[in-house]
Write a structure and sequence with these properties.
- By secondary structure, this protein is α/β, with parallel strands linked by helices.
- It has 2 domains: 164 residues, Alpha-Beta Complex (Aspartate Aminotransferase, domain 1), CATH 3.90.1150.10; 262 residues, Aspartate Aminotransferase, domain 2, CATH 3.40.640.
- Helix content is 37%, strand content 18%.
- It is built from 13 helices and 16 strands.
- The strands form 3 sheets. The protein has a 7-stranded mixed beta sheet with strand order 4-10-9-8-7-5-6, with helices on both faces. Strands 11, 12, 13, 15 and 16 form a 5-stranded antiparallel beta sheet that branches. The chain has a 4-stranded mixed beta sheet with strand order 1-2-3-14.
- Helix 8 links the parallel strand 7 and strand 8.
- Helix 3 packs antiparallel against helix 10.
- It is globular.
- The termini are far apart.
- The mean pLDDT is 97.
- The structure holds pyridoxal-5'-phosphate.
- It is an enzyme of class 2 (transferase).
- InterPro entries: Aminotrans_3 (IPR005814), Aminotrans_3_PPA_site (IPR049704), PyrdxlP-dep_Trfase (IPR015424), PyrdxlP-dep_Trfase_major (IPR015421), PyrdxlP-dep_Trfase_small (IPR015422).
- Its EC number is 2.6.1.77.
Length: 441
């Protein structure tokens, strides 16, 4: 069997040609894709094959929190590879135990157990499974403005366009979460938005039937949906409502966790404790794929004598675990979370806010840490989103200035690695300023 790949001999050293011949990419029609070849990177910088050194304001899928080629993480993976490159999930293994301990200690008191997954989607998948089993209920409530991953239940829990062609799982209900700039509740202050969003949630719960609902699943800060910072008291309110009806609360920290917001977990900036926390991305910055579910004591205890009907060949894969241990230790040792906090407060926040004056297309700037959205509009009064062509022009102008920008609909998401220095952040904002001007925005 097999077939003749001899044609590949002519392109064997050509990453771009091989990609176009054989690689099928996510979330795209394939024909007109032109992926950029990246050779290596260091810190917040990426080296393109054309020789350019690019300042990365994306952290890829908002996951490379520790930056590229962090020597301690590379070394941690190498050491684990030499010791034991693979072992099944049923065994005890030092890297796995340490990784679980290091992750769990960032969660609130009483969260001691971690179920490791391959990524964020299957973390949410298993969190929903656990919530359904623990409560004996079926429905999961989640926001229209969210992304929870690209697997069966996770994509049905997702609110954005990606759910629509993939929506085959049952038992999912959506509701609106706070977003003052485009309020669904005709609110004019964060307090009003918070109060009305909570009333709306409680109405949805009452109309759906509280005893049919297993969990409310929420991103601590909706990321892909627009880095929308929830009002201070929102989660406390959700917690009160969910407690009242015996509904579990799952907090998705996949994108916002591990330093992104200037806190270990984004939920640290809010006054509440969920029942289950999911994580992935920043736990080891994607050096080896990993994610997981952190369970509060009562949730974990439910499965003490009841079989958890879920598992993965690579749950707690030693290379991923070695990468988590090295990442967590380096983040602590190098004060990387504090750095993200300070760079956000001192440079990115004020720097991006200052752009509002010179660029009439900027409707709102919001964020914290190294997690910022610049929302662009055709008209500040009507808030009509800026068109796609203009957004693509901004990305193209940024590229000419060696700045990698992430764009989602009418928003620029400024999400550099947490290790970015104040000088690099200021340089990136200056390049963004120039790119907006060059794009006529
Ligand atoms: C909040 C959130 N949850 C879950 C996911 C899914 O994670 P993964 O792509 O690792 O499966 C993502 C991915 O971007 C995310 O942002």
């Amino acid at each position: 069997m097999g077939h003749d790949c001899s044609a590949d001999e002519t392109i064997w050293d050509d990453a771009y040609a091989l990609d176009r011949a054989h690689v099928f990419h996510s979330w795209h029609a394939q024909r007109d894709l032109h992926p950029t070849e990246v050779v290596t990177g260091h810190g917040v910088w990426l080296n393109y094959a054309d020789g350019r050194e690019m300042l990365d304001f994306t952290s890829q899928q908002v996951n490379v929190n520790i930056g590229y080629q962090h020597p301690a993480v590379v070394e941690g993976i190498k050491k684990q590879a030499e010791l034991l490159a693979t072992i099944g999930p049923d065994y005890a293994n030092l890297a796995r135990g340490r990784a679980a301990s290091l992750v769990a200690r960032r969660a609130p008191e009483g969260f001691d157990k971690v179920f490791f997954t391959n990524a964020g989607a299957d973390a949410n998948e298993n969190a929903m499974r656990a919530a359904r089993l623990v409560t004996g209920r079926d429905k999961i409530l989640s926001s229209y403005r969210c992304y929870h991953g690209n697997t069966g239940a996770a994509i049905s829990a997702t609110g954005d366009w990606r759910r629509k062609p993939n929506d085959y799982a049952r038992g999912h209900v959506h509701f609106f979460t706070p977003y003052l700039y485009r309020s669904e509740f005709f609110a004019t202050t964060q307090e009003e938005e918070c109060e009305r969003a909570l009333t709306h949630l409680e109405h949805v719960i009452e109309f759906e039937g509280p005893d049919t609902i297993a969990a409310v699943l929420l991103e601590s800060i909706p990321g892909t949906a627009g880095i929308i910072i929830p009002p201070k008291d929102y989660f406390k309110g959700v917690r009160e409502i969910t407690r009242k009806y015996g509904i579990l609360m799952i907090t998705d920290e996949v994108m916002a966790g591990f330093g992104r917001t200037g806190f270990w977990f984004a939920l640290d900036d809010y006054d509440y404790t969920p029942d289950i926390i999911t994580f992935a991305k920043g736990c080891n910055s994607g050096y080896v794929p990993a994610g997981g579910v952190i369970m509060s004591k009562p949730v974990a205890a439910y499965f003490d004598d009841v079989v958890f009907p879920g598992g993965l060949t690579y749950s707690g894969h030693p290379l991923a675990m070695g990468a988590i241990v090295a990442t967590q230790e380096a983040m602590e040792r190098e004060h990387i979370v504090d750095n993200a906090h300070d760079v956000g407060r001192d440079v990115l926040g004020p720097g991006l806010e200052a752009l509002v004056e010179h660029h009439p297309t900027i409707g709102e700037v919001r964020g914290k840490g190294v997690f910022w959205a610049v929302e662009l509009v055709a008209d500040r009064a009507t808030k009509e989103p800026l068109d796609d062509a203009s957004m693509q022009r901004i990305v193209a102008e940024a590229d000419k200035l060696n700045l990698v920008l992430g764009v989602h609909n009418n928003r620029i998401h400024v999400t550099p690695p947490c290790v970015i220095s104040a000088e690099e952040a200021a340089e990136g904002v200056a390049r963004l300023d120039k790119a907006l001007t060059a794009a006529g925005c």
